[in-house]
Design goal:
Layout: H1 7-14, H2 35-57, H3 64-89, H4 101-125, H5 131-158, H6 163-171, H7 178-184
Amino acid sequence: MSGGGGGGDVYNNTTVMRDPRDNQMFLVPSQLLSKLRCGVKVAEVVLSFMAFVVEEVVTSCLSCGALYFFEFISCIAFLFTLLLLILLATKLHSRVGITCWPKLDFIYTAVIALLFGAASSAFAAVNGGTSLEKAAMIFGFLATVAFLVDLLLVWKNNGLPWKDLDQEAGGGAAAPGPEQQVLTGQTN
């Protein structure tokens, strides 16, 4: 409506504008996941999946323990990283009762990088030397590098995710700001 007497003018100044991203399915870039980190997470998923698939094609093994450990870690890395990517890249993360996504993402990525590196190293040390085993190891080491790059990106861009907890623990509770004082009726 244009002009003075319409009800639309009254509500335009008082209603909150909706974020156009509210209707989007994917939220990249967002506070939880930048475009670069999203690409790295996709690489982690693809490399973990390739390591798992190529390892599954191996028909015989010298020491099957290392092969089975590699199989387990590559499968877990693929499935959980895919789940984490879906949660962080969509609105689903807000529907789960977790509030510390940066910490969870960092710790998960560090643990998987460590386990994938260990599994790939163990598989590299004890294998039959077939081309399939070598390909699986290469994908395993590449996935490990992708997880390490993800950790470095988090550290470079945001620092360690628990540094804010250290600041809160050292300084005690912060004094309420002026807005909070007005809302709660507190004064100094």
